[in-house]
């Protein structure tokens, strides 16, 4: 399991975009990024706008320069900045799946109302995230522990 597996799809693509720019040696064409990330150019432009907004504090501080042109992008780092420091760590900490795991880790046994209150999630969203976590944690044989600590059944009956 990779830590980016804890992210939702949109944040995962933004992190992949940032990683591609971080590892690139100079400017990268939007067409190439679109192909690498398997997204349309219009979606890529939305992800670029989101990345620009998320990096705004580092850009304003002068630690990062993000050159956005019509056909290409370039990320320049001033000084030594790691990929995780840029955005990845923040994205992981804000991810619902990570917050669920931390809540279980810190409190031990968590009830459904506690999850709903702490994370401001609906029951349906909570079940969806728990199912994702069950599949992610299956390789570590942690699924039964997660089910027991949540004090609820993870699988939901199918509606007729």
TrEMBL record:
What positions does the domain Helix-turn-helix type occupy? Answer: 17-57
Q: Which residues form the Mga helix-turn-helix domain?
A: 92-142
InterPro entries assigned: HTH_11, Mga_HTH, WH-like_DNA-bd_sf
* Signal peptide coordinates: none
Q: What is this protein called?
A: HTH domain-containing protein
Tell me what organism the protein belongs to. Answer: Loigolactobacillus coryniformis
